[in-house]
Write a structure and sequence with these properties.
With about 350 residues, this protein is of the alpha+beta class. The protein folds into three domains: about 50-80 and about 275-355, conserved putative lor/sdh protein from methanococcus maripaludis s2 fold; about 95-190; about 195-270, Elongation Factor Tu (Ef-tu), domain 3 (Beta Barrel), CATH 2.40.30. Helix content is about 45%, strand content about 30%. It contains six helices and 17 strands. The chain has helices at about 1-40, 60-65, 95-130, 140-180, 190-195, 340-355; strands at about 50, 55-60, 70-75, 75-80, 80-90, 200-205, 215-220, 230-235, 245-255, 265-270, 280-285, 290, 295-300, 305-310, 315, 320-325, 335. The strands form four sheets. It has a six-stranded antiparallel barrel with strand order 5-6-9-8-7-10. Strands 1-2-14-13-12 form a five-stranded antiparallel sheet, covered by helices on one side. β12 (about 290) and β13 (about 295-300) form a beta hairpin. α3 runs antiparallel to α4 (about 140-180). The longest helix is centred in the middle third of the chain and has 44 residues, at about 140-180. The two termini are about 65 Å apart. Residues about 40-45 have low confidence and may be disordered.
């Protein structure tokens, strides 16, 4: 009896195991089909495609509203090419030294000229007395003549030295600064330099550039983020910067944040005759999205299509950047809010393509 019960129990267990594996075998295909159907139902719709190498993102009007996609119309603008130049705050020690020597030479000439006037009178008197029955001897007259000629030579020597120093200043520092340095008393402009209220900056511009009298520029010490300093044109300079080739000009600027030997960066408008203003558009700063180290904007082609276009950030303007491109014109709409979302859609598209590959 016990054997029969054990046999029946074993047979039932065997049948249960067989039925379980039969269910697993036949139910696997249905389970896979169900999962595949579920995945197809929740698959993300493809919103990105390419057209002639350009990436186009498609978003319905409803999705745009939900994602707070906002656009703005581009405005036309003009931009005049600017010059990026370098300069150097220079020491005026040699100019001061030449000025001092020049003034000393002029003072010596004045002293010699005063002595010459006296010696000339003495010589003329002695000469007259010598002719008048030799009231004075020839030796006394000759001594007075020698003193007169000596004073003449002193005046000529002092004047020659002063003229030579003036020529040296003109060759080294230019006509304008030489004229300032030879004035006595010193002019207000020279006094500002002598008292270190202002400094002199040597600016090097491209060979085909030019600046106009009275023009001012903004300079910033190289490598710093200090506020720009206004500098005014003094004159063209005969000096050159040995490290840069180009035309050189003197500018003067307040000495508060500038010291002799400092390098300065300059940005100024190109006033050359062959430079004309360029027509383009202003790209708002909040429309720019960075990808792969480059700036881009999304242009709205129609109600639900956006295309990503490259721009340039070389010419900064108030509130954005000036651009000149055939793909962007005044009146075009660019995304100013939500550009990062459109870029994310592109990333999803790229990842999906990689998985399919």
């Amino acid at each position: 009896m016990n054997r029969k019960v054990a046999l029946i129990v074993g047979l039932q267990a065997f049948l249960i195991i067989v039925l379980f594996w039969v269910l697993v075998f036949y139910g696997k295909d249905e389970y896979d089909s169900y999962n595949q159907a579920q995945e197809e139902e929740v698959a993300t719709p493809n919103r990105v495609n390419e057209n002639k190498g350009a990436t186009i993102v498609t978003l319905s009007l409803e999705t745009q509203k939900q994602s707070d996609i906002q656009t703005a119309s581009l405005s036309s603008s003009q931009h005049q090419q600017s010059l990026n130049a370098l300069g150097n705050v220079i020491s005026i020690d040699t100019l001061i030294e030449l000025r001092t020597r020049y003034l000393n030479a002029k003072a010596n000439a004045n002293i010699a000229r005063a002595s010459l006037a006296n010696s000339k009178q003495d010589f003329q008197r002695m000469q007259s007395l010598n002719k008048d029955d030799r009231n004075v001897s020839d030796q006394v007259m000759l001594a007075a003549q020698a003193a007169f000629k000596s004073d003449q030579a002193k005046v000529q020597a002092a004047e020659t030295e002063a003229n030579n120093l003036n020529d040296t200043m003109r060759q080294t520092w230019g006509e304008t600064l030489a004229n300032e340095a030879t004035k006595e008393p010193a002019s207000a402009n020279l006094q500002a330099l002598l008292l270190h209220k202002e400094v002199l900056i040597l600016i090097t511009l491209p060979a085909d550039s030019n600046v106009k009298a009275g023009e001012s520029i903004n300079v910033v010490p190289t490598g710093t983020k200090t506020k720009s300093i206004s500098a005014k044109l003094v004159a063209a300079s005969p000096q050159t910067d040995t490290t840069i080739q180009g035309r050189t000009y003197y500018f003067r600027a307040p000495a508060e944040n500038l010291r002799a030997g400092m390098r300065v960066s300059v940005e100024m408008k190109d006033a050359s005759n062959n430079t004309k203003s360029s027509n383009g558009v202003t790209i708002p700063a909040n429309a720019v999205v960075w990808y792969a180290g480059k700036p881009w904007v999304y242009k709205k082609q129609d109600d639900d299509h956006f295309i990503r276009l490259p721009i340039k950030t070389d010419n900064e303007m108030s509130g954005g950047w000036f651009n000149r491109s055939e793909q962007l014109a005044a009146g075009d709409n660019v995304v100013i809010n939500g550009a990062q979302l459109l870029l994310s859609e592109e990333f999803k598209y790229q990842i999906k393509n990689e998985n399919q590959d």
